[in-house]
Design a protein that fits this description.
The complex is a heterodimer of chains A (399) and B (274). Chain A is of the alpha/beta class. Chain A contains 16 helices and 14 strands. Chain B is α/β, with parallel strands linked by helices. The model of chain B has no long low-confidence stretch (mean pLDDT 93). The chains are: A alpha/beta (399), B alpha/beta (274). The interface between A and B is large, with 37 and 42 residues.
Amino acid sequence: MQMTDLPDRKGHFGPYGGIFVAETLMYALDELRDNYERLREDPAFVAEFEYELKHYVGRPSPVYFAKRLTEQCGGAQIWLKREDLNHTGAHKINNTMGQALVARHMGKKRIIAETGAGQHGVASATVAARFGMECVVYMGSEDIHRQAQNVYRMKLLGASVVPVESGSKTLKDALNEAMRDWVTNVEGTFYIIGTVAGPHPYPMMVRDFNSVVGRELLTQMPEVIGRHPDAILACVGGGSNAMGAFYPFIPHKEVRLIGVEAGGLGLQSGKHAATLCAGRPGVLHGNRTYLMQDENGQIMETHSISAGLDYPGVGPEHAWLKDTGRAEYVAVTDDEALEAFHAMCRVEGIIPALESSHAVAQAMKMARTMPKDKVLLVNLSGRGDKDMNTVARYSGLTL
Amino acid sequence: MPRDVPALSRIPGVFDKLKSAGRKALIPFITAGDPDKASTVPIMHALVTAGADIIELGVPFSDPMADGPTIQRSSERALKHGTSLKDCLGFVREFRTRDEVTPVVLMGYANPIEAMGYDSFATAAAQAGVDGVLVVDYPPEESAQLTGKLRAAGIDSIFLLSPTSLDQRMEEVAHLASGYVYYVSLKGVTGAANLDLTEVGRKIPQIRSHVKLPIGVGFGIRDGATARAVAGIADAVVIGSRLVQEIEASPPGQAAANIGALVAEIRRAMDAQA
């Protein structure tokens, strides 16, 4: 079996993935899997998805040569895949659009979603509004304080935002709560998971919808440089933007795939979210994958300057890409990400999301040590407007 | 087709005895380490004194996805004291020094077991005197390996069935389950209200046509009346959130006494039925 043929019908990527949920959810997951397996092969559905991506999301997103950033680093060329230019400002809408269409085909009228930074919540609320569906977004009460603007944005789009007070009051707890809602209202509700994690078929489905990123790159880069890049870099929290960029390149062995995790205050500090760099395999949120956990198997609270990377798990396909050596995973600290954020603002006139800034930071590090004919492609997964308060606070300012 | 399941633990004997006495099993659930580690074993003994036939001991987990707010909070209280899976096995070992007969089922989530490792867990659980294991987030398709190791160690694997389980899933559960099966009597998380007895009454014969094990019913059982009604149609009544609520509301040191009184009342109501 080719790596690109994964997962198997039960959702396994090697030893990872699978379906680890209570019996109460099995029917809903079977129903979703059967519908999605049919739809992904249906030319009419694919055409519908592509139409929305082109006319509503604004695809294809361009690739851009970051000339001045490259000159500043003085080595390999840094190119950017501009997912920040999508409608709603990030790659997240590729997936929510796809899942909303699946929900419509299944006759589900109510959408639920979990969100950390709020980007996936906004993208879910957006497509719910676009198709006239009810939308409920679960968000940790800690994150609600940190991301007030996105909360308001979701409300403007007609969604209700439910604060989650349990556990660490962040993304993982919002995910738990969304699962509980789904178990309770399983018949009329569609759960839009925002990353390539969760029980099968979510890791596969979210990857498929985001793979439009990598597919566009397959033709875009040869058009501008005559070949594929030497490496593709993307930040990894749950890993949806990275998986979308990596997946079509898995068979192209000459292209290095580099996932950049949130190193927080440094891997030694224990305050980070670098699951693949420092975690161990286990079971959480419906799949087997690498997790940040203590010696007793309890899930640890993570830290990152970027709420979107602040998650103790990671998509199971990334776990498999790591173990097989097809992709490499590194960590970048809060400070390094901030430095890259400021560099991008001043040198390129692009305000990147703090999540994406992690990938930029790694590209800058690598570019300095590589010759000028090498090409690094960074998936610039989102724009940084949402991060104004966080960045100002780190600079000692209050807006 | 239903098949005979060989006896592994203390559980089948308990059901046989109850059956010949014309009574139904009462299975209380508590979270280990709630409200503190020292209370757990005394509460277990109090449950037995009050009429419990089997004890489900919840292993606390940081992310109890299938549980409602009451049991979530009990997990958080237990984890505040650092209650680990090892501690839970320790509670069972201590319980066994005074009670050799009452079966204990560990109920929890996959990851603490994954972290300990299947072999170490199966061995340690058998040594501690555990009779059954119910892992909420191991459906049959992901649990063949653990079930095999537990069976080899003489421990039953308990599985859940739900209102949305189709015949094919009941068949899959029948192939792996022993001890009893646990029918989750409503959609939703633990602690939810609105038990639909008509629906439960419809589902149980369907389960019996696939699974030749006693059927316990849980979720939504809150008092003597609901327990009595469920005892009329199932083999066992599982009661969890209501007891955990009682522990939560009890002043320090009172949990065992209060929970004992509540369970005794439920026992009386159930036996009046029989």
